Amino acid sequence: MTEEFIRFEKDPELCQIFISGEVDLSNSGELRKTILGALKTTPAVKVNLSGVEYIDSSGIAAMVEGLQFANSHSKSFYLCDPSPQVRSILELARLDQVFDID
Questions:
Q1: Which residues form the STAS domain (predicted)?
Q2: CATH architecture of 6-101
Q3: What is the model's pTM?
Q4: How far apart are CA 62 and CA 18, in angstroms?
Q5: Which of 95, 94, 63 is CA-nearest to residue 77?
Q6: 93: left (phi over 0), alpha (psi -120 to 50) or beta
Q7: Bridge partners of residue 18, in order along the sequence
Q8: Whole-angstrom Cα distance, residue 71 to residue 65?
Q9: 75, 39 in Cβ contact below 8 A?
């Protein structure tokens, strides 16, 4: 795991979360906590996936949980710039039709 697996930039209206490296069972809990924490304190969260080299089902589950939380609390949750690896996984699972992806 890299030193800056998760980095974020926050203002009153939007929290942008930047993820890099590999997202798997060893660190997906940290991702989940970061996403849910951001959703509790800002109206919109955007997760930048351009630096993600690999993601497993636990990482996908953390983002699905974020989307469910956002939907049930009238918040916005977006994914942006998925790396080719992440995009192919999202498309294979048809999650590209579930998430808002920029």
A1: 4-102
A2: 2-Layer Sandwich (3.30)
A3: 0.93
A4: 14
A5: 63
A6: alpha
A7: 7, 48
A8: 10
A9: yes
